Amino acid sequence: LGRREIRPAGTEVALGPTTIGDGSVVVIAGPCAVETPEQMLATAELVAEYGAVGLRGGVFKPRTSPHSFQGLGFTGLELLVEARKKTGLPFVTEVVDPEHVKRLAEVVDGFQIGARNMQNFALLSAVGQSGLPVVLKRGFGCTVEETLAAGEYLLMEGNDQVVLCERGIRTFEPSSRFTLDLTAVALWKQRTHLPVIVDPSHSGGRPELVEPLSLAAIAAGADALLVDVHVRPEEALCDAKQALRPEQFAGLMTRLAGAAAGL
Ligand code: PEP
């Protein structure tokens, strides 16, 4: 269902008022995890000011260690709604449980399916049935084809609002958190009609890698970027090491605008 031949012009995904896949490169940004009203609102206002067209923020955080911050759950969702009201930006948030889909669907603009749940088929089907946009993150041990197969589970429910996300895979290379696989970006763009988003934050795992990985992702054909930003990364409860500070996000957006203008 996702094959490029089926829709050669490509699919546009409508996230609230934002379109992903219309030929321009858009940025969705925000904290890895929603933590406090002040943190979420300040970060949302900041990313809106510098040109992001969508917000990200996890309220259900599937962490490797059960001792790590697990997210605020439905309470955090209210903060995302508040941030949307303040900025006018739509948001995506991760869903981890098929039982949560209906309740979340009443308020979210789009779902995110995390790397650890890419092959949770019951979750894929439930999210597909919601009809809402979905950012489907590649499992860090999954192939290009397996990711496409996971996408088919969404498409089979009659939902074509699917954005494939490359967020890095696990390799023998320890100098970055994961290895960003730009081959996947090029292949997905060639083989499917779905838009592709790249997460340079979770892949590189370090702020100084976000800009080069973002520029490389765009060169490989990415339609969008998913970027971790925090007003005070040193206080972040989740993935503190990779979040961009306000001035780093501003710099990134300036650089991306320059690249789009051919500078
Ligand atoms: C995230 O984007 O919040 C996240 C947890 O990413 P991933 O599922 O790619 O690890």
From TrEMBL:
Keywords: Transferase
UniProt keyword Chloroplast, yes or no: no
Molecular function, one GO term: 3-deoxy-7-phosphoheptulonate synthase activity
Domain DAHP synthetase I/KDSA: 19-250
A single BP term in Gene Ontology: aromatic amino acid family biosynthetic process
EC number(s) from the headed UniProt entry: 2.5.1.54
Protein name per Swiss-Prot or TrEMBL: 3-deoxy-7-phosphoheptulonate synthase
Species assigned in the record: Amycolatopsis mongoliensis
